[in-house]
Sequence to fold (565 residues):
Amino acid sequence: MAAMVPALTIENLSKVYGNGFEALKGISMAVQQGDFFALLGPNGAGKSTTIGIICSLVSKTGGRVSVYGIDIDEDFPGAKKHIGIVPQEFNFNQFEKVRDIVVNQAGYYGLPRELAEARADKYLKELGLWDKREVASRMLSGGMKRRLMIARALVHEPRLLILDEPTAGVDIEMRRSMWDFLKKINAEGTTIILTTHYLEEAEALCRNIAIINHGEIVEHSSVRDLLRRLHREVFIFDCVGELPETIPVSGFVTRRIDEHSLEVEVEKGQAVNEVFRQLDAAGIEVRSLRNRANRLEEMFVTLVEGAA
Amino acid sequence: MSPREQFVAFMTILRKEIRRWMRIWTQTLLPSAITMSLYFVIFGSLIGSRIGEMGGYTYMQFVVPGLIMMAIVTNSYSNVVSSFFGSKFNHSVEELLVSPTPNYVILMGYVLGGVARGLLVAVIVTLVSLFFTDLHIHSYTVVVAIVLMTSILFALAGFINAVFANNFDDISIVPTFVLTPLIYLGGVFYSMDLLPEFWANVSKLNPLVYVVNAFRYGVLGVSDVSLPVAFAMIGLFTLAAFAYSMHLLNSGKRLRQ
Ligand SMILES: Nc1ncnc2c1ncn2[C@@H]1O[C@H](COP(=O)(O)OP(=O)(O)OP(=O)(O)O)[C@@H](O)[C@H]1O
Ligand SMILES: [Mg+2]
Fold:
C-alpha cells in the first residue's frame, strides 16, 4: 500500500512581514495523518505566523504548504475545507449570539442550514456551551470563548484541527476536560496540531513535536524520543588525576570533556555505582559528581538558547 | 466549492447582514425616515412653495426623486462601510477568510446586504413622500434599473472605503467630505440649467448628477442629462468599483498580513 499522504507538509516556508521583519526563515516539517502534534517555542518564535499561513490569514513569502496533499498555491479553497482553526486571539463578533456564530461558520463552508444547525448544536453540547447558545458571545467567560472557537472550528468536521494556545487562560479542571475532548476527537481520526507554552500539556497529549525559535525549527521529533532522552540522566564526574584518552568504563555512553571531566549517560535502571566501581578498578579517583539538569523545560531552554 | 455551496455561503452572509441592520433599525432605518421627512417639510412645503416651478414641476415634485436617491446612496454606502469595517475591526472577517468561500461571494454578500437596506429605506422614504405629494411614475423600468445600479455602486464604494479604513474616523471621512457634497452638488435640489455653463460642465464629472437625473427621469420624465449617457456612466462606475473591490480582496491588501 502506498504511504499515506501527510496531513500537513511545510517546505522551506519563509515569511517577511511588511515592516521587513523576518518571522520565518525557511522552515520545513511534516505532520502525519492522525497525529497529535505540538508546535512549541517561546513568545515571538513564529508559531502563529506559521499557523496564519496555513489558514490563509498571513501570506507567505516563500516555500510550499500542502494539506492532505493539496498545495495551497494550487487549490487553497480545497485545502481550507480540511482545516479547522482555533486562533490565539478571539476573533468573533462579540455582539453575535453563540449559536449564530457557529451556524454561520458552517454556512461559510457551504453546509446547508439544517445540517449547519444540527452540527452547531452537537458541538455546543459537546463543549458545554449548550446553556449559553442564545447568549451574546461577549457575555462568555474567557474559557468559554475558547471553547466557542473550538466548536466553530469543528462545525465543518475538518480532518486537521489547528489550535493556537487553546488552553491559555483556562483553569486546570477545564483544561483537563479540554484535553479529554481533544484526545477523543483525535482518537476518532482528526489530526491535531496545537501550540502551547505548557510542556506538560504537550507531554500529556502529543505524539510528535517541533520546537521553533527565531523562525527556525530547532527540534522535530517524537515526544517518546524526547522523553527517552530525558529519562537518561547525564552525570559529570570530576576526577583527580588526568583521564586516559580511552575511558575505562563499559556499558555506558561516555564522553571525555577534558582531562579531568567525564560525562556519563545513565539510563533508567542502570546504577551509578557501576561507574564508580569501574573507575575505581582503573585507579581513577573521583573528586565530585554533579547532575546535568535535564527536565523537559531544561531541554527546551537549551534548544532555544542554543539557537539564539 | 460547488455552486450550491457557494450559494449557501452567499445566503449566510446576506442573512447575517440583513439581520444586523434590522436589529439596529433605530440607527439604520429611522434616521433616514426622519431626515427625509424634514427635507420634505422644509424644502418641499415651506421653502418650495416660494420657489415656484423647477424644470417644469412644482419644487416638491422636483426634489422628491433626488431625496429618495439620496437616501438610497447614503444607506447602501454606510451599511457596507460600517459592517465590513466592523468585521475587520473585531477580526470576525477572519471567519470568512479562513473558509473556502470565494472572494466574489463575500463581496456579493456584503454588497447585497447594503442594497437590501438601501431599497427598504427607499420604500420607507417614498411612503413618507406620499404625505406631501402625489407620485406618478413615468417609467418603472428606468426607476427599478437605476435604483438597483445605484445602490450596488455605492455599496461597492462603501466596501472599498472599509478595506482602506484603519479606524472609525476613516469610515466617516468619505461620507462627510466626499459623498455628502457630491450629493448636494448632484442636482438633488436644483436643475443644472441654473448653473453657469462652466459649473454645469464640472458637474458632469459628478456621478451623482447621472444618478439623480436618471432617477428623476424615471419618475417625472425629465432629466438634465441624456438617459443613455447616464446609464453608461453609472454602469462604468459600477464595473470599475466591482473590479477594484475584487482586486483588493484577491490581493489581500489590508485584510491579510
Ligand atoms: N503583522 C506583523 N508585522 C510585523 N511583525 C509581526 C507581525 N506579526 C507578528 N510579527 C512578528 O513576527 C514574530 C513571530 O510572531 P508570532 O506571532 O508568529 O509568534 P508566536 O510564536 O506565535 O509567539 P507567541 O507565543 O507570543 O504567540 C514576532 O517577532 C512578531 O513580533
Ligand atoms: Mg502566537
Remarks:
- Residues A 17, 19, 21, 23, 41, 43-49, 88; B 257 surround adenosine-5'-triphosphate (ligand 1) (CB under 6 Å).
- Chain A touches chain B at residues 17-18, 52, 55-59, 76-78, 80-81, 83, 85, 87, 89-94, 96, 100-101, 104-105, 107-113, 152 (CB under 8 Å).
- The first helix of chain A runs from residue 47 to 54.
